[in-house]
Amino acid sequence: MTRTATGAQANFLFIMEDDVTFNQHPEDDPPDDEGNWKVFGTDESFDSQDRDNNVDRLYRPFDRRAFEFLEGVFDGSWSTTFTLTNAWWLWTVYGEPDVDGDTYTFTHESGRSPRSMQIIEEINYPDGEVEQTIYTGAVVSSMDADVAVGDPFEISLDGAYATEHNRSTAEGESLIYGDPSDGIATQPDTNIRALHFANSELLTDIDGDGSVESRSLIQDVSLSHDGNVEMENEIGTRFAVAPSFLNFDFDVSFTRIVNTDEKTGDKRAMYGAPDVNTPQESLDDADVEGEVVVTPGSGELYDYNVQLEGTFPDSFSRNNVADPESVIEEDIDRFVTEIDWVVETDVDDLDDPTNSTFV
Question: CA nearest 294: which of 285, 286, 283, 303?
Fold first, then answer.
């Protein structure tokens, strides 16, 4: 009888490649982090793994049909979504953090180069066979962090990878990682409570005086990070040999219910300054700071403070005006110069990426 494979029979993990190495061969040159499997977060899903051989059709005179196909550059891409728990995934977006050993604070600055990694996909088929695919030279190109009333704090990552290695016990092959017959077998447990909207807070400098304060009746917040990562190729191989980390594009957007405590601040910021009442020719005074604070709660491992610097108004809209069945809402979008993630934890060895105690 044919039996289907489901997500309940699959493992999805990652390990970081060595700091100065890209696209390490999992058998000939395994990373130092081998065996220290990391998970991106709770409720994670390996949403897509796409391959493209970029095939060219070759033609010849007096024939409409292609007479040959020629493989081109190999392009691999991947994506995942998960609920925010641990902080390991920040290494793959922002690189190695600054560490304050006295307070166990780790600051991931957005101006650094992220670490490449190997992503492990393992399917344990119902008939006992095991298949592993190792995606090597994997990098993150974009990140979205979203939280809304009633929902978990969700992270989405999109990226590329250089190549992949597949092994299957059904073909009589030895697996690359884990037990020779069972593979990894067990998905690591995060052991950390997932974070959601009630752990979150948005603070901005609404008055333009340099002081940030908590905003009221925020319905959702979205942080967007586009790293504009390109995989570079060279003659002699059709697989990527290095990633290029180009310009950063950061954005923040949020929705709020109009209320008596905060009336016109965001609209005036769109005009250019808190003390003007019409759009200005120049918005030089519109820069404001902001923070997104995520506090897991007493006794948990992580406190997150996402710091936004140099935000600039891009768009503003009001919705549901004069609709008696709805509240009036405002949608605000701002460009951001820099987004830094500051993580406070009780763990004094989190700065070591090979430590797997807290995954």
Answer: 303
Q: For residue 324, how many C-alpha atoms fall within 13 Å in the half-sphere facing its CB? A: 0
CA gap 354, 31 in Å, rounded: 10
Q: Alpha-carbon distance 341 to 87, whole Å?
A: 10
> How many residues in the chain?
359
What is d(CA 162, CA 259) in angstroms, rounded to the nearest whole number? 50
Q: In the block, which residue shows the tokens 């979008």?
A: 333
Q: What is the number of helices (H) and of strands (E) in the chain?
A: 2, 21
What is the CB-side half-sphere exposure of residue 78 using CA atoms within 13 A?
25
Q: Is 162 helix (H, G, I), strand (E, B) or coil?
A: coil
pLDDT, residue 354, reads 42
Structure token pair of residue 70 = 């020629």
Nearest to residue 86, comparing CAs of 253, 274, 300? Answer: 300
Comparing C-alpha atoms, which of 77, 109, 80, 104 is closest to residue 93?
109
Measured over the CA atoms of residue 18, residue 24, residue 30 and residue 34, the dihedral's sign is: positive
Paired with 72 in beta bridges are none
Helix (H/G/I), strand (E/B), else coil: 322: coil
Sorted by sequence, the CB contacts under 8 Å of residue 278 that are 6+ apart come out as 271
pLDDT along the chain (359 residues), means of 10: 86 92 92 89 94 97 95 98 92 90 84 90 93 96 96 96 95 89 77 86 80 90 93 97 93 94 84 86 72 70 87 92 95 92 71 44
Per-residue DSSP letter, 184 = T
First to last CA, the chain: 38
Task: Provide the token pair at 24.
Answer: 């390490």
Residue type, 131: E
**Are 272 and 286 contacting, i.e. CB atoms less than 8 angstroms apart?**
yes
**Position 168: which residue type?**
S
Q: Is the pTM of this model over 0.85?
A: yes
Task: Give me 76's structure tokens.
Answer: 């691999």
Partners of 161 in the beta sheet?
76
What phi and psi, each to the nearest 5 degrees, are found at residue 265? -60, -45
The SS3 of residue 177 is coil
